[in-house]
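explain this:
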Amino acid sequence: MTRLDLRVPVEAPAGTTWAALTDWARQGEWMLGTTVRVTSGDGVSTGSGLTAFTGLGRLGFTDTMRITAWEPPVRCAVEHTGRLVRGTGEFVVVPRGAERSELVWSEDIALPLNLAFAPGVAWSLRRFAAFAREYRA
């Protein structure tokens, strides 16, 4: 298992940061090489299923997840349930005043071939901060 704990300051209120983070269909706008779709449930409640494909073209891997905690606008936890990607993840939005927040991204994850993914997630979170700052639902 690999442990990842990353934080990024966001120049947006916590509610906006939460809405941007959980807009699954638009996650590909900021997450490196990834598209996400809701595969079961409504995508905004415990038990909902998500599928993320990370890669280029047809070369990549699929990460299936189940939402295990849904506490808007603060916390979402997932269990990675696929054959290749296993473990847990948690996304927490911390208010930092009326117009700022912080996103805390934590994962305990086993990846195929022990892929190093921290640099890609860190780059994506910097893109997320810009995405959330301009986010409109």
About this structure: The chain has two helices and seven strands. Residues 2-133 form a domain with the Alpha-D-Glucose-1,6-Bisphosphate; Chain A, domain 4 fold (CATH 3.30.530.20). The chain has one domain: 2-133.
